[in-house]
Amino acid sequence: MKRFAALFHALDAANGSRHKQQALLAYLAAAPAEDAATACWLLAGGRPLRPVAAPVMRAAAQTAADLPDWLFDECYERVGDLAETIALLLPAPAPGDDLGLRRMLVGHIMPLRELSRDDQAAGLRALWRQIDGDSMLVVNKLITGAFRVGLSRQGVVRALASHSALAPERISQRLTGLLASRQPPGADDWYGLTAAGDDGDTDALPCPFFLAHPLTGEPAPRLGPAGDWLAEWKWDGMRGQLVRRGGVSHLWSRGGELVSDRFPELLAMAAMLPPELRIDGEIIVWPADAERPLPFNVLQRRINLKQVGRKLLAEAPACFVAYDLLGIDGEDLRRQPLASRRQRLEALLATCEDPRLRLSEAIASDDWNALVEAREAARSRGAEGLMLKRRDSAYGEGRSRSQARGDWWKWKLSPMSVDAVLVHALRGHGRRAGLFTDYGFALWDRPVSRPDAALVGFAKAYSGLDDAEIRRIDSFIRRNTVERFGPVRTVRPELVMEIGFDAVAPSRRHKSGLAVRFPRILRIRDDKRADQANTLAELRALMPAEPG
Amino acid sequence: MRRSDQLPIELRPAGLYCPAGDFYVDPWRPVERAVITHAHADHARSGHVHYLCAAAAADVMRARLGDIRLQTLDYGEPLVVGRARVSLHPAGHVLGSAQVSIEIDGHRTVLSGDYKLQADPTCAPFEPQRCDLFVTESTFGLPIYRWPDSATVIDQIRNWWHDNAAAGRASLVFVYAFGKAQRLLASLADGPGPVVCHGAVEALNRVYRAGGVTLPPTRAVDDGIDRAALQRALVLAPPSAAGSPWLKRFAPYADAFASGWMQVRGQRRRRALDRGFVLSDHADWPALLQAIDATGAETLRVTHGHVAVMVRWLHEQGLDAGAFETAYGEQPGGDG
Q1: What is the rounded distance in angstroms from the CA atom of residue A437 to the CA atom of residue A472?
Q2: What is the pLDDT of residues A370-393, one digit of tens each?
């Protein structure tokens, strides 16, 4: 555990990817196989099921630290991270046996999940007495699941590729398989991950997704002639890969999660397709007879549920919008140009009439003006904007590979926005610990001229401000707190900010009756008073009109 | 027990005031007579008519405030002011820092100023004072603040300096220019390269040396140090120098901040520095409680820092605890 803790602290301290690569490579060279495998799995985003609920952990820590409730809360609020708060508060333990990373995880952390709450608390306290100070933070983070370190999945792939002298694509594909499991990989998996040679494509793993860069500003002239580009609608669903292998279908999310069980209607649809196949696309809720898909919050109900009832299947029918054909009949098409992949995709889908499988529409793109107009119409189609894909481009991997940069762009509409009043604040986490950085915003429930007008919360947002602005708002919140409920501060409703978002939809879960998508702060409106903020009716009016 | 409104110290718009002696302690607005605990800017302000401080602080006071009317006392030496008997006692914070003792009719009040209990080769160690009313700071008044042993931290810094020098880069440490910088210097002799100080730090080094504190030799950048030596150097600069062109000459360098605030990972990451070393000139939570306990005081008043937390904690221990809302610095990034 000490070796992995040292790696964690080295990655945490390092600024710059070269130092991080060096630290990880040194670890991989020194660690036992099972620890190297588990470390890569964790760093690339693999997680065990959460072994202990946060309140149980918090209560056990409070007992171990012998502090009153309120003082533990003050500390937590200051630190902004439960795992770190506990590491700072517990008495320094006597260093015991140094277990390896995987043995710690599999032998001591994951079994906590099977215990009763009381036994979990006792188990945690016993664990805390055993581990040394440097490991304490890391072990706690493995327990809370808030294990994040500034290294991307691609960074792990790069280090593994360099360690094993294999192509990053092969590593990435193998890693995707490991990441689909909640069980930390062992020594055999390590040899499998780093073994030389071909995998023969005998498995049903997804290949890495190719991701687009956001396009800011105008596409012309820097993207060249519009005719070089395939333009498609950018849907606000869930990116997915449909893999058929030996006639069995698997549906993967972009995060490497197998989601087949959640979309039985898509599996039923896939059964009609050829037995060896790989399609990149978007899972979205789109009833057969509807002109446009339903908003994302409807899909969200499907994503959250592992077991889908008949009622939900009828209310929120899923559809797979096919973007790209990556492989068929054992042939990998990813190196071929998009235009020819597209032709084969069209030919394939022409044979298949099922409303649950739609071909992503190619928008006529002879000139940029037509595309600018199409983009403007995106919202009325239920789309977020356009995707631009270079017709002669191969299917790349991830977002950061430089030679493929510029082949795929997402060209979203400018956000809709309202002016809203800051009413709540919470302290941030991680880099923003201690500062008030998470805000709740409200709109008026009726025209402000009415004496009974009240503010109703409609969105939370925490991104969009720079460090100087955050400090300024933090100081405003400290000076204007009117009430505290646990970590939440109610703030005097004075400060107005412009809040941008990508879509509005009706919602039964929100008090305002409306849900906004990707709310973020566009700017602070010092020129506006609270009574000049927008109303809920004005927000509702931004929803696209119901079709015909 | 005295009622709060009868305390021998009261909060006035200009600062903490002692009616029996008609003087203030560390006032933040200009007053006639000011007793100063130590020469950090938020405690020793300009514009007062008469100043009183510890003899060991006189040089720093003059260096920072210029030609002031200054009276000094040796530690422990009494002075009668009105009905009050005033004496100053080491606080262990920085050179010349003092706790202020005020005795009136057998009732003794002690104001801590800023203090620490850790050893510091550049100033006299904190001396606990028995008293009836203790006014304490609370900069790090939360249980998450528990300092590692300072010798361990010094070793971490020394190892980091060696590693950097071996890799051909300078080691840049941001430190408070008065106090922390000299404490580090005095603890870090014989490194792998020269010690280079920013002008703001060097100005204080001169005062310390003149006051008899032994510091290893330091260089200023205009000494004409060759490049090879710079790449092995330890550079001490105040936090305000971060991002300034002055730093460019040291590239390539690794940077770090030495402060109690570095105890929390988010604080470290927010600054995007290579390292954060947990080294503070203030008492941590256990030291605050230890110091308070050692006074035997039944009445406590808490100033700058985590005031509400300390007050509630002391109250729950059955003590008469309250707050004084002072104007001393308490923002992370300041003197820590």
Answers
A1: 11
A2: 999 999 899 889 899 999 999 999
Nearest residue on chain B to A150, alpha-carbon basis: B269
CA dihedral of B23, B26, B31, B32, whole degrees rounded to 10: 40
Give the Cα separation of A196 and A199 in Å (integer): 9
- What is the longest distance spanned by two Cα atoms in chain A? 75
A79:B264 CB<8 A: yes
- Asked if the Cβ–Cβ distance from B143 to A89 is below 8 Å, we say yes
Shortest distance between the Cα of A22 and any Cα of chain B, in A, equals: 14
Task: Give me the architecture of the B150-277 domain, per CATH.
Answer: 3-Layer(aba) Sandwich (3.40)
Sign of CA dihedral A235, A238, A239, A241: negative
Asked if residue A199 lies in contact with residue A66, where contact means CB atoms within 8 angstroms, the answer is no
Element (H, E) at A487: none
Show the domain range for A475: 416-540
- Where in the sequence numbering do the catalytic residues of A fall? 234
Name the pLDDT band for B336 (thresholds 50, 70, 90).
low
**Contact (CB<8Å) A75/B144:** yes
Superfamily per CATH, domain B4-144+282-323: Ribonuclease Z/Hydroxyacylglutathione hydrolase-like (3.60.15.10)
What pLDDT score was predicted for residue B334? 46
pLDDT (tens digit, 9 = 90+) per residue, A110-136?
999 999 999 999 999 999 988 887 889
Of A15, A80, A428, the CB nearest to B272: A15
CA distance A439 to chain B (A): 19
Pick among A79, A136, A484 to test the B interface (most B CBs inside 10 A): A79
DSSP, collapsed to helix, strand or coil, labels residue A536 as helix
Are A432 and B272 in contact (CB < 8 Å)? no
How much is the CA Rg of chain B, to the nearest whole Å? 20
Task: Quote ipTM for the complex.
Answer: 0.91
